[in-house]
Design a protein that fits this description.
Radius of gyration: 21 Å
Largest sheet: 6 strands, parallel
Number of domains: 2
Helix content: 40-55%
Structural class: alpha/beta
Order of helices and strands: HHHEHEHEHEEHEHEHEHEHEHEEH
Oligomer: single chain
Shape: elongated
Distance between the termini: 43 Å
CATH superfamily of the largest domain: Response regulator
Strand order of the largest sheet: 2-1-3-4-5-11
Strand content: 15-25%
CATH class of the largest domain: Alpha Beta
Length: about 350
């Protein structure tokens, strides 16, 4: 069953989900800061909601690795959505992957009366029972960015990762001028549900186009020096590659720096919108990257959960429970607009 991509404003209005906040959802899903008045929680529906809700509306977002700069937009989106709706939103999670700690923190949110929780899981299977426990208590649970597909989560908000990997392969074919040859993929989280899907999509796409995937190298994105050394080893081991296909954001950014240093002619098409990646595209050191819009991946489920909690809108029926947030293709032709947009999410 093929899931639909429900990223366009008409998907929101067609199902009546964004009552009173549709314009804000459409604007903020694009990463645009709302007007100051909207950001102060003084919209007319705030007092109306408080007049009939017995408890304050509280929605939490729990991320498996809050120190990862990729999730900065998701953190900002959590704050934005709470301010616009006039409700309590919380961004939490361990700084580095620690599923046991993250589960404990989510349980704390539930004990504190959070009616909905959006989980960005680092692993899929360990969440099956905790999510069941939460939904049994009447808590709405959603997954974002990465999924726990065998759990009782209501919806998954994120990219169609297999399709994203296939798009990566197609872009490599475009930038090589259809010159087939050897390609090396890099993977910062082998074994994760998300990276498994992305890897399979890219590998299948490259193979179908006539390329030979000679290696898929594991990288460590938490150690910049180690990551740099790993990529240098890749080129020493495979000097004749026509393309490097990083599956992760840090790998993509570092690959661009490597090509700048060695003057290589191999194509680089990677993933995510880290600022070093965008400036690398601008400088001509990276050919293209694929963005997931992590802002929308947090913002949209908060807006959806608000409708479910406050107005009691029915659960939306999407194929396999997937609300795909789309894929943004960034190359030198359009990178300037993304540099402007993503500046807001840089760590201070």
């Amino acid at each position: 069953m093929t899931a639909v991509d429900c990223t366009r404003p008409r998907c929101l209005s067609r199902r009546g989900l964004m009552v009173g906040v549709g314009a804000a959802a459409t604007t903020a899903a694009l990463g645009v800061r709302p007007p100051l008045a909207a950001a102060q929680g003084d919209q007319p529906w705030v007092e109306w909601v408080s007049s009939f809700m017995s408890n304050p509306v509280k929605i939490g977002v729990s991320c498996f690795a809050t120190a990862n700069p990729y999730f900065n937009p998701s953190s900002v989106a959590t704050t934005d959505a709470g301010a616009q709706l006039g409700i309590e939103t919380t961004w939490s999670g361990p700084p580095t992957p620690d599923t046991t700690t993250q589960i404990s923190q989510v349980n704390d949110l539930i004990r504190q009366g959070y009616q909905a929780v959006i989980i960005i899981p680092g692993e899929a299977d360990p969440w099956v029972q905790p999510i069941k426990d939460a939904t049994d208590k009447g808590v709405l649970v959603f997954c974002a960015n990465q999924d726990s597909p065998n759990s009782a989560r209501e919806l998954f908000f994120g990219q169609d990762l297999y399709a994203g990997g296939q798009t990566q392969a197609e872009l490599i074919h475009q930038f090589t001028g259809a010159k087939t040859g050897q390609v090396v993929m890099t993977n910062c989280a082998p074994g994760s549900d998300a990276l498994n899907k992305r890897s399979a999509g890219c590998r299948d796409g490259l193979t179908a186009l006539g390329y030979e995937v000679v290696d898929e190298v594991t990288t460590d994105p938490t150690d910049a020096a180690k990551l740099r050394g790993t990529l240098e080893d890749v080129l020493r081991a495979h000097p004749d590659i026509v393309a490097l296909a990083p599956l992760c954001g840090p790998d993509t950014a570092e690959a661009g720096k490597l090509r700048q240093r060695d003057g290589g002619t191999y194509v680089i098409v990677g993933h995510d919108l880290l600022f070093d990646t965008l400036t690398g595209i601008e400088a001509g050191n990276i050919d293209a990257t694929l963005g997931q819009n992590p802002y929308a991946q947090a913002y949209l489920p908060i807006m959806y959960a608000y409708q479910r909690v406050v107005i009691g809108t029915p659960k939306i029926d999407l194929p396999d429970g997937n609300w795909f947030t789309g894929t943004e293709i960034v190359n030198k032709d359009n990178v300037a607009q993304f540099i402007t947009r993503e500046k807001r999410f840089q760590s201070s």
